[in-house]
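Before a computer can learn anything about folding, someone has to put a protein's shape into writing. The three-dimensional part falls to structure tokens, numbers that each stand for a local backbone shape. The protein below has been through that process, and both of its lines are reproduced in full.
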Amino acid sequence: MGHRSKEEKDSITKAPSEPPAELPDLPEPDALWHPIATDWYLSLRDSGQAAFYQPSDWAMARYAAELMSRGLSEDRPPNGQYVAALNSVMSSLLTTEGDRRRVRIELERKQAVKVVPASVTAIADYRSSIGG
């Protein structure tokens, strides 16, 4: 990753990586969609960038899932033009970290909580009780 100036760092929009607190009433995935297309569409609801989506973005997401489903359901492999078009639609929805970086959006992850196994805690408690 390259060096960023202070101005570049200051111009990044930060948002939580969790799903937005409120989402509009969204249509459920089409029952005929390929499972991968359904998973992708549903993953958008749980993604931080959804906080920036307008109704037209959700409509575009349904369109992308439909395209994806049709391509995945065909017997022959998809052609390059189809894949490029689908990738373009998905990119416009900021679905990858690279897409979000390009438009200067950063999803902030919660700090991981360090989990200490109970056995380690018990040993530490035992040592402190015997003055160790």
User: Anything to note?
Assistant: DSSP finds six helices and two strands in the chain. The helical segments are 6-10, 35-45, 55-73, 80-92, 97-102, 118-129. The chain has a mean pLDDT of 80.
